[in-house]
Fold:
Amino acid sequence: MAKNKSILLTPHDSEHKLRLPEFVSKLIFYLGLTFLPIAAYAGFFSVVADFFNGDNSSVASPVANVRNMALLQAALNPDPNPSKGGGDITVVGGSALLPETGPTGTIADVNDEPRGNNISIYVVRRGDTLSQIAKMFGVSANTIAWSNEIAAGLIREGQKLVILPISGISHLVKAGDTIQSIAKFYKGDVTEIARYNDLATATSLTPGQTIIVPDGEIAAPKYAISGNSLRGAGGPDYGGYYLRPITAGRKTQGLHGYNGVDLADAYGAPIYAAAAGTVIISRDSGWNGGYGKYLVIQHNNGTQTLYAHNTENLAVEGQWVGRGQAIALMGSTGKVTGPHVHFEIRGARNPF
Structure:
């Protein structure tokens, strides 16, 4: 007795049994097509014809093409946001004198974050305007004009512009000045001036005191010392990192302005670098917003030091200077009443 039975399917039976589900699937597919938009994609009817002819090789091709199609592909623009100003930005802050670009290599995706207390340098390119540059750095056009002594907004290709980190005016208090009178003169806001300078609106001001007027305006550059965002003893304390920039003399004014102090000595006395770094600004002439002849050094810890009112600058832009190296001679250029160095530390506490 046979324990196992085998069922033999003839080729005809096999073909019949396999064609039934295939026919059903094709019928379902056909019915579904009646509810689809006729112009689904190019070559629609040829694809349907191929399907019923048993040739499915062309079905996958349109799907793959649709998925790989570069939708909304746009032409690349090396400067897709011209309103931010054109050109290479040479920003002093972390990477001195290096172009600042975003991840895609353009200035359009540069983060619009505050630049802290550091000074920046912008190299003007053809087609730039003062307003474009000001917008890119988040300051007013007047702030740039005042700090660079630009007449009638005229700038030239290749010109290096000093960009201070805040829009505003630095006012040296005179006898009789009040917060209200300063606000009126510079078209500022009394409350904002008081808040920015940590003062009460009714506070009596002391002659010689420096008051910052946020977003203040002025008609003539000769009265302006642009920008100030670091006051008092703010910022980290780096201990003995900074050397006193003069070896003798005395302090004639404490912390004021841009975290600066005034240190007086004999006319022509040497001024020394407070710490090692690269000279990023060396202005040998001009009013320069009241600083006169001045230098700025970028240090490895991310801070900057400024030395103003010099009679002569001994170091030049791009020069590496060591801690304690003579970089200038004391003078009385700019807005001063006698020979001294106005010494600022940007980004850290001023220990002097």
The chain is about 20% helix and 20% strand. Helices lie at 11-33, 44-52, 60-68, 130-137, 141-148, 179-186, 190-196. The longest strand covers residues 250-256.
